[in-house]
Amino acid sequence: MQFGSVPTVGVDALSAEAFLLDVREDDEWEAGHAEGALHIPMSEFVARYGELTEKAPEGDKVYVLCRVGGRSAQVAQYLVQQGIDAVNVAGGMQAWEAAGRPVSDGKGGTGTVI
């Protein structure tokens, strides 16, 4: 599936080992996120790009998430232009939560998607 010119997959295509990049803002992240995801808000992404290149597994896909898929599509497109194998996750964290995937508040509790 494509979102414009950006490769896009649904939440059901993600394995437990998938490398997730969450580009939502801090308040959204704190309310609830996928455990183990790397968090770099879209508003800070270019300045913090090095954090991604340090943490992303060499040669692996980077699955980009936001709340519904718009911001993540933009970041995924940017990453593809940088030569990174990036994929937008359709429906974002709302689809993640709807699919019954765990949402963490980062404090040991259940989070929520805002």
From TrEMBL:
CDD domains: RHOD. Pfam families: Rhodanese (PF00581). Coiled coil: none annotated. InterPro entries: GlpE_sulfurtransferase, Rhodanese-like_dom, Rhodanese-like_dom_sf. SUPFAM superfamilies: Rhodanese/Cell cycle control phosphatase (SSF52821). It comes from the Bacteria. Residues 14-105 form the Rhodanese domain. This is Rhodanese-like domain-containing protein.
